[in-house]
Specification:
Length: 130
């Protein structure tokens, strides 16, 4: 199972980089959106303000903290579940910073997948003057 997950992630990364390189290094044409961040051309924007250039930008997801709530601790099914909180953080090479809080295990996994796609698009972007 883990092998297939790693294989699929590697395939998505390879495909993203391949498509971006076939566009002449303009990975930003993919227009990736999510968690309050938009790639517009070769810049990263957050809620209408410019964070910085796409080249050198990076997205990360913090480790989720888990805890039992009172209602989950009382129920039989709730004992096995925990409430997870984490954050998606996007930084640029010029110091731009954006943070979006997330909660729930499913949302955490979705954010991790989004961060991988964002980092692949950012890595494929050729910096100006290179």
């Amino acid at each position: 199972m883990v092998f297939w997950i790693v294989f699929i992630v590697a395939l998505v990364l390879f495909t993203t980089v391949k498509v971006a390189s076939s566009r002449g290094g303009r990975a930003a044409d993919a227009r990736l959106r999510g968690y309050g961040v938009v790639i517009d051309g070769s810049t990263v924007k957050s809620h209408g303000r410019t964070l910085g250039p796409l080249a050198g930008a990076q997205a990360q997801v913090t480790d989720g903290t888990s805890r039992h709530t009172l209602t989950r601790a009382v129920t039989v099914v709730g004992v096995a579940t925990k409430r997870t909180k984490a954050a998606v953080i996007v930084t640029t090479a010029t110091g731009g910073f954006h943070q979006q809080d997330i909660s729930g295990a499913t949302e955490l996994r979705r954010a991790q997948a989004w961060a991988i796609r964002f980092n692949a698009v950012a890595a494929a972007e050729i910096p100006p003057g290179a």
